[in-house]
Structure formats: C-alpha cells, structure tokens
Specification:
heterodimer; A: 441 residues; alpha/beta; TIM Barrel; 8-stranded mixed sheet; 13 helices; B: alpha/beta; globular
C-alpha cells in the first residue's frame, strides 16, 4: 500500500511537471501579411528551377516570377521584402507519416495520445488529440517540415489520421485538408525476436485477424448500403455506430484507406484485398516494397515509405536496402512519398529523403517524395507541394540543398505565416553556449 | 547454387582477411590531427600505417587501391554501442561491477558488417544502464569474417565500466524491485557505498599484503573491480542525462580521487559544460535524440557544439544498430546545430571517442604507427551524398562495396524454416528510449 501511495505521489509530481512545461511553445509570434522574396533560386519542384521572386498574399503564393521578366511585383498596402540572394526557395516539406502533436514524451504514457484502447476504433480522430502547443512542433518546423500526417497507431483499425500544418493555435487551424482511417494490415509471421508464439499460434492469429478484417468490412459495406437507402428515402439513420460511420467514406470511395503493411507477402495479400474489396488505398511503411515493386506498380497503389533510415528487416538482406527501397519503388513506377514515422524528430525528413536520393532515387525524385507526391497522394496536389501561383504559402528559404546536413533553413512560411525561427532547442543554445554565470557564483 | 555462393563468399572473406599490407593511392586524406592532404598516398604494413606521402611506390606484394577522387578518413569509432555482444543487461543488482559483456562476444552479429558499411571500424560494446554500477564493457574491432570471438577484442584497450544515473536504474530497482535507488538522492548513496566498500576491500588487501594482517580477505570480484576503478585502472562510462546528476557523480568521484570519466548521452551536459571541462570529464552524446523520456525533454541538438566550445572532449555515438551505420551523417549535424568546422565535426567520431576509450595512441587519426583502420568515401564524408566504398581494419579490407554479397551472414542456419523476417522498428524514433535497456524484462520496464 505504501508503495502504491508513493507511486501516486511520484506520478502526480511528474504530471505537474509536465503540464507546466508542455503548454508553452516559448517562441515569438508568427507574423502575417504581404511578403516578397527576392533574388532567390526558386526550386518549384513542378515547374523547374530558376532565379526570381515569390510573393505571398493572404496566405497564398500570389506570384512566382523569373528574374528579368516583366511581371511587376507590386502589392497594395506594401510588403515585407526578404532579399534571398544566394539562397534557395523550396516548398515546405511534407512528412507522410508521424505522431507529431500526438506524443510529447516517449516513456510517459499519459503524454502519448496516438494509441487508444481497442482493436476496431477507426472513429478515433487524431486531429482531436493534436496538441498545438507541443514543444515538438517548433523544434521540427524550423527544420523546414511544414506539414505532417499525424497518425494513430495500435490495433487493426487504430483511428483516423489527419494532415496538419505545423503552426496554429487550434487543431482546426492546423488542419491541412486530408483525413483517412488507418488499417494495420494483419501481419503474418513473427513480430520480432521476442515473439515466442509457436508456428501454429502465429498462423492461427493471422487467420483470426484476417477473418476479423473481412467480417468488419462485410458489415461496413452492409451498413453503408443501409445508410444510402435511408438517405435516399429520407429516413432516420440507424443507431449510433461511430466506427462504421468512420469507414463509410472509404466504402464509398470518397476517402482512401491508409494501409500499414511492411512484409513482402503481406503486401501481396494487401494488394489482393484492396482489389477484391475495391478500396482506394495508400500503403504505408512498405519496408519490403523493393521485393514486390512491380506488383505495387501494377496495382497503381501509391506508397508512403519509411523510415528510410532504418535497418533491413532480415539478417540476410543487403545492408543498404532500406536506403534503396524508395528508389526501387519509384523506378518501378510507383508513386512514392517518404515518412519518418517520428514524433520528436520529424526534422530528419530531409535526411531520410537524402539517403534515398543517394542510394538510387536521385535528388529530384527524392525531393518530390517529400513535397508534391505526398500532396497528390493526399488529394491536395492543387494546394500543396510546389512553388506555384495560387498554392498555399508553405515554403522555406534555405542556404543550399535541404538534403545536405549542414544547410541552414533561414525562413519558414506556413499558410503565409512567417514563422519565428526559434524553438526551445535554439533558446537553450542561446542561453548555454556561453553560460552566465560561468563557474563563479 | 546458393550454398556454392555462400562457400565462395566465405573464401573471399578469408582471402581478404589474410592481407595486412595495403597501399591507398591518390586520395584526399582527412588525417584529423594533421590537416587534409590532397592527392596523397597512405601505406599500411603489417596492419599499421607505415607511411603517408605523395607518390609512394608500392612495395612488392602489396595490394594497391586507386582512390583518386575519394576521401579517406580514419576508421570511425563509436564510443557507445551494443553490437557484437549477446547479453546487455545483468539487471539483478544496483551494482554488478563483477560482470563483463566480453564474456559473450558474438562475431556473427550482422550489425558488425552493417556498421563497417558505414565506415565504423571500432566500437565500445557496452553493458546496459539498468544498474547504477553496471558491468564491464569491451572495446571491439569490427573484424567481420572472423569466427573466434577472441579476435573481436581490441587487445590493449583499457578496461571500461558502465555506470548509469537517473530513470533507468531508478525504474528497474526502485520502482521494479523496491530497492534503492528510487530517486537521485538514493543514486548518490549507492555510489558512495560502492566506493566506500571498494576502498575498505582495497585497504584490507593492502593490510594483508604489507603483512599487517596475517589472513587474506575473502576474494570478491565485485569489490576488486571497485578497487580497480579507485586505482584508476578502469575508465568509467556513465549513462547520464540531467545536469544535477552529472554534478553529483563528479562530486562523488572527487571525494575518491577518481578522474577518468566519460559521461554517456549526457543530454543536459550543455548546462554544466564549464563544470565538465574543469573536471576533465568527457562527453559522448547523441546528435539529436530527445524527448523519448522525461529526463531528456529539456535537450537541445546543439549539445555537442556547446560542449565542444566549452572545451569538453566530445564524441557523437549511436547506441543503436541503425544509427551506427551513418555516424558520419550524425557528425555532420553539428554543422547544422552549431556550425562546427569539418575537422571539429569529424573529431567527434574519430579521435575524440578514441581519447574517451583510451585508445588514441592506436586509432582515431591517420598517423604513422597507428592501426591501419580506414574508411574510404566517394564524396566528403560529411555530405549526405557520400557513400562508404571500402572499410579497412588493421590493413584488411572488411567492407568493399564492389565485393558486397547480398547475403553476408556467416552462420546461416540450414535448418531454418520460418521466414526470418524481423519487425525491426515499427516506429521511427526511439519511444522505448536508449538501446541501453535491452534484456531488461518487459514487466520490469512497464510496471508503474
């Protein structure tokens, strides 16, 4: 009893400690308005690379012009001019799969909001639990990641993911216009070295999970049919069933299903399932995609691969295969986006892409995999992912190639907001590089 | 066919393993201690660097590698790894100074080959962080291809021991087993008691050896190890995060006159960088890991830079089978988080970890007389586009991208029937924290 009591005190103390610190990003306010970025090398991703200027108005890229062109960059009410001579403008990077905003401290479970109880809970909304004040957010966005898919994780249907911009004071302000439920596709085989199940049990568990998935899907189809009939006849809907409601847009092909699947045989099974059920699918993880790249390409299923900076899945695999995986998939004709699957280090997205570029994907394709490709995969190709007139003003200004480790990101714009280039990590640097007092009292 | 390939690969590996003489010509040598030398040759004889000069003529029988356009740096050193050992944690007592990871080395760990493919030639195989005083560690050379565990050891490397502060030992012993330490107060007293016991044991033996006492004291390996630490014969590598606990351990060590310590992880080292420098303590840090537990919530990726600028000998380590494959990239992060020069950044994965492991006379730079350990890259190793081409250990080519088998395993089990697929990392990031908690029972970790 005494032991329990002490634990409660320790836990309460820890919680108090957390709440006082988690709820402040400790950065300056972002600024809004008209901006002209001049003399930059603009890497549009979709329309080539050239010297020129970009204008931002009302949160939108209002103009992109080449140096020497006759387009006049005049703005009513004036504009803040940023001379980006010698610097580069890129679209804000998009991480196709993370827990950002949903997790604060790994080992403190009460700060982990991406893993709800239950195996069939597609109605759990990631966006509901996104903490706009997470200390993680400024740390990661000043590295140039402006947008990320916040994903629930856990059981078969762990919830509905939401794409968020990494700036805003409410989840709704941060919402970037894409949601989809996640399916952790039933995994065959053992889950790791620690998995002590017998071969028989492994097989049984797999069959059970597959049966469960198919039962759920049959029910969801029936539910959708009934719902359509009820709507057509202007009748009241059947009772409260939020799980089924969450899957209906997928059944109706109005929304894709995010399917997490990694092992080659599981990927094949998932392709078959997607075709049988006529589901609009996006595959995530896809660690062994390189083994079945042709099949994925043939099925025309886009993939969000990653993390790239990861070990191969089998002891017998070539050492570099995880770095090479996105390139192999892209070469086979698969549309590829890259994810970090990170919470606090989403900032390493350009390095995941950089390793993919180095090991076969090439710089241009790897850049697309963290800009225009995820935008298109999420159905937002007309709004995000490139420097084009009319798109949302998510862009970064950096000193060089953003894949190169030493490149500094100097400015970040999210939804047209000029983001302060600081986070708790930069503030700690400022305070402690030359600490005062030093050694004296 | 597969079997034939396997035998063939084995033959090739063995064949490569026999040569200890090699001449690498026309490369850009990043010596670390003597600048960058363009278009220069480096000759290794009998496993040691014997000459660095332009236009060296190949002695007969010496293999020549043309490295024109390539960058050659000293083999990378990881001061914190768990590769090549079969057991990481003996989580049964707050003090397990008597155990030694070197008792169970595993030359078949494919992680060793994968690390070589990232240019890493030496690593510090460490005991875990479950105990305040953990077990003794082993400095290994990545001699992939050898079958005798003995051949992994870096002969002559000083003995090292793992200490651990903060949440891990508090969780395992305090929360999990109802034993001190449950707090950082308890932590201090565990160390004071361990050192006091070690001192008493040493005194008892001194009394016996000087004839003051006739009967010898009972031999106790744990106490003998504590005594060896007090005598300065073992280097301490201490898992630590928070500034206060770092100051605490330096106080305890001062009281016992112990000087040799490298703080590992040391995420809040930046807060007490002047104190670390004044003590002469070293720091071995992650490039950017943080927030995986509460004690690393107030971290900054600028840690390495702040420590280095304050005069602390700092290295960047992996503590991970994954990160160890691209330490050159992790070192480059010090140029994003703090603008270190190329040489300052590369010191963090070469000479600095060598100093911390007490092997800087043998490895860590390209100097005549040092071990013939080289990492050859096609581009500058701090570039994201650099690909390691060849990794040489003691004059042996242990990794060669032009001779890299798809399946490199040395101990394929012919009876293996299950698909050997392993879910290595279901989640990017490091939600379970550092790799130092391997082998600690799940129920211990998750009990609250």
């Amino acid at each position: 009893m005494k032991y329990l009591y002490i634990n409660i005190i320790v836990l309460a103390g820890l919680l108090l400690g957390c709440t006082s610190s988690i709820h402040s990003q400790i950065t300056k306010k972002a600024s809004y308005g008209n901006f002209i970025i001049k003399n930059a090398t603009i890497v549009t991703v979709t329309k080539g690379t050239f010297e020129g200027s970009v204008t931002i108005q009302d949160g939108i890229i209002s103009g992109v012009s080449k140096s020497g062109s006759k387009d006049k960059t005049v703005m009513e009410g004036g504009a803040t001019i940023i001379d980006a001579k010698g610097m580069y403008v890129y679209p804000g990077m998009i991480d196709g799969g993370t827990h950002i905003g949903l997790g604060e401290i790994g080992a403190v479970s009460l700060t982990q909001d991406y893993n709800e109880l239950g195996d069939f809970i597609p109605h759990m909304q990631a966006l509901t639990a996104v903490n706009p004040s997470s200390v993680n957010i400024p740390v990661n966005r000043i590295a140039g990641v402006t947008t990320a898919l916040a994903c629930p994780d856990g059981g078969l249907f762990p919830g509905t993911a939401a794409l968020i911009h990494l700036h805003g004071y409410t989840p709704e302000q941060m919402f970037a216009g894409f949601k989809a439920p996640i399916l952790n596709f039933p995994a065959s085989g053992k889950r790791g070295r620690w998995d002590r199940r017998s071969e028989e049990d492994v097989k049984k568990d797999e069959e059970k999970a597959n049966k469960k998935l198919n039962d759920i899907w049959t029910k969801a189809k029936q539910y959708t049919k009934i719902d359509s009939l009820a709507t057509a006849k202007n009748k009241k809907k059947a009772g409260f069933n939020p799980q089924m409601d969450a899957l209906m847009p997928v059944i109706r092909n109005e929304m894709p299903l995010l399917i997490v699947v990694n092992k080659d045989s599981d990927i094949k099974a998932a392709i078959k399932w997607v075709e049988t059920q006529n589901v609009k699918a996006i595959f995530m993880g896809v660690a062994e995609g390189w083994r079945v790249a042709e099949e994925i390409a043939k099925a025309e299923i886009p993939v969000i691969v990653g993390p790239v900076l990861d070990n191969p899945r089998r002891a017998s695999d070539p050492y570099e295969i995880n770095y090479a995986n996105p390139g192999i998939l892209a070469k086979a004709g698969v549309q590829v986006a890259i994810r970090t699957n990170e919470t606090e280090n989403v900032r390493n997205l350009p390095y995941n892409a950089g390793f993919a570029a180095t090991y076969g994907m090439g710089i241009d394709e790897a850049l697309k995999a963290i800009t225009i490709n995820p935008a298109q995969i999420f159905g937002l190709g007309d709004k995000l992912g490139s420097i084009e007139k009319g798109k949302i003003a998510n862009l970064i200004i950096c000193t060089g190639d953003p894949f190169e480790t030493k490149t500094d990101v100097k400015h970040v714009f999210i939804n047209g907001w000029n983001i302060p280039m600081e986070s708790r990590q930069t503030l700690l640097y400022d305070e402690f590089l030359d600490r005062s007092p030093g050694m004296n009292k | 066919m597969k079997r034939l390939l396997f035998i063939l690969s084995f033959v090739i590996i063995c064949h490569v393993g026999y040569s200890q003489d090699i001449l690498v010509k026309n490369g850009t040598l990043i010596t670390i201690t003597d600048g960058v030398k363009e278009n220069t040759d480096i000759l290794i004889r009998n496993g040691k660097i014997s000459q660095i000069a332009k236009g060296i003529k190949a002695p007969s029988g010496v293999e020549v590698i043309d490295a024109e356009g390539m960058y050659i740096m000293p083999g990378i050193i990881d001061a914190h790894s768990h590769l090549g050992i079969d057991a990481v944690n003996e989580a049964t007592d707050p003090n397990t100074a008597h155990v030694w990871v070197g008792d169970a080395l595993n030359p078949y760990d494919v992680g060793i080959y994968r690390a070589l493919a990232g240019g890493v030639t030496t690593s510090h195989a460490m005991h875990g962080s479950a105990n305040a005083v953990g077990g003794q560690c082993e400095t290994i050379k990545h001699r992939w291809g050898v079958h005798d565990p003995e051949e992994l050891r870096m002969i002559g490397a000083p003995r090292t021991i793992k200490f651990a502060l903060g949440e891990n030992p508090m969780r395992v012993h305090g929360e999990g087993r109802g034993l001190t330490p449950r707090t950082r107060m308890g932590m201090e007293q565990v160390f004071r008691k361990s050192f006091a016991d070690g001192q008493a044991y040493m005194d008892a033996w001194n009394d016996y050896n000087s004839g003051k006492v006739k009967t010898p004291p009972a031999y106790d390996l744990k106490m003998q190890t504590m005594a060896d630490i007090l005598k300065g014969e073992i280097l301490i590598h201490c898992h630590s995060y928070r500034a206060d606990e770092i100051l605490m351990l330096m106080d305890v060590l001062s009281d016992y006159g112990v000087k040799n310590i490298t703080f590992q992880h040391v995420n809040e080292g930046f807060k007490v960088a002047p104190e670390l420098a004044a003590f002469g303590a070293h720091a071995s840090v992650f490039s950017d890991w943080w927030a995986y537990k509460f004690e690393v919530y107030y971290s900054t990726a600028y840690n390495a830079t702040i420590l280095a600028k304050n005069g602390v000998v700092t290295s960047i380590n992996s503590d991970s089978r994954e990160l160890i494959r691209h330490l050159y990239h992790e070192a480059a992060k010090t140029q994003k988080y703090g603008d270190l020069s190329d040489n300052e950044a590369l010191k963090m994965i070469t000479i600095n970890p060598a100093i911390q492991l007490g092997i800087d006379k043998e490895v860590g730079s390209l100097e005549k007389g040092k071990d013939g350990d080289l990492a050859i890259f096609n581009k500058h190793p701090l570039s994201i586009y650099a690909i390691p081409q060849k990794t040489i250990v003691d004059g042996h080519i242990r990794f060669d991208i032009d001779n890299d088998m798809d399946d490199i395993r040395l101990d394929v089990d012919p009876t293996e029937t299950i698909p050997a697929y392993i879910e290595t990392q279901s989640h990017g990031g490091h939600s379970c924290g550092d790799g130092c908690m391997q082998g600690v029972a799940e129920h211990l970790l998750h009990k609250h």
